[in-house]
Write a structure and sequence with these properties.
Layout (H helix, E strand, L loop, with lengths): L4 E4 L5 E4 L90 E2 L3 E3 L3 E3 L3 E3 L3 E3 L3 E3 L3 E3 L3 E3 L3 E3 L3 E3 L3 E3 L2 E2 L3 E6 L4 E6 L4
Parallel strand pairs: 3-6, 4-7, 5-8, 6-9, 7-10, 8-11, 9-12, 10-13
Antiparallel strand pairs: 1-2, 13-14, 15-16
């Protein structure tokens, strides 16, 4: 077709222009070595299909910028491994899991801990503000809350409960709940004067 050409320059440069559609077919293996930089600009869409495995090795840093939305879909397991820190920065982060979310380390929350179900931890629970749950709260360690701990169900800890504000469970609030020892009986009566 008129307008397509290949130019060979004296300095070793090659310029190829194709004004129509281009097809490049290799029946067997293909190897590309670029000693300098490589720039690829695509004005339309780009589709890459790999029928086998794909491996990308970057010796330096890697940056990806997406002006629109980004979606990653995996039909099986997904693993992200880092020997350093992993940071996720977003306006809102939603985690949707069919069976549960497991955190095998300490969970430090600077804000509130809100749960429509139970809150269970095999270690300690630290909240920079409040803890709220509509069912139960269970931890084998201690519970530290700088604000209010409000649980509708049972609160169970293997150690102590430290709260700067009130601790409430069901209809009982520790801010106004007292125990009075009855001499000679070995028991104590419970008194709740109301929610303070």
């Amino acid at each position: 077709r008129d307008g397509s050409f290949t130019e060979f320059h004296p300095g070793g440069n090659v310029v190829q222009k194709i004004v129509g559609t281009n097809f490049f077919i290799v029946a067997q293996d293909n190897n590309v070595l670029i000693s300098g930089d490589c720039n690829i600009t695509i004005s339309g869409k780009a589709n890459i299909q790999v029928d086998g495995d794909a491996f990308t090795y970057v010796k330096g840093n890697s940056d990806q910028v997406v002006s629109g939305n980004a979606t990653v879909t995996c039909q099986k397991d997904t693993t992200v491994t880092s020997t350093g820190m992993v940071s996720v920065i977003a306006d809102t982060i939603n985690l949707n899991a069919a069976s549960g979310v497991n955190v095998n380390a300490d969970l430090n929350v600077r804000g509130n801990i809100l749960s429509s179900q139970s809150i269970t931890a095999t270690g300690n629970i630290n909240a920079g503000m409040n803890v709220y749950g509509t069912l139960s709260l269970q931890t084998s360690g201690y519970l530290t809350v700088l604000g209010v701990a409000g649980i509708v169900g049972v609160v169970t800890t293997g150690s102590s409960i430290l709260a700067a504000g009130d601790v409430s469970g069901g209809t009982v609030t520790l801010q106004t709940h007292t125990h009075t020892y009855i001499p000679g009986t070995g028991t104590a009566t419970e008194t709740t004067t109301g929610h303070g």
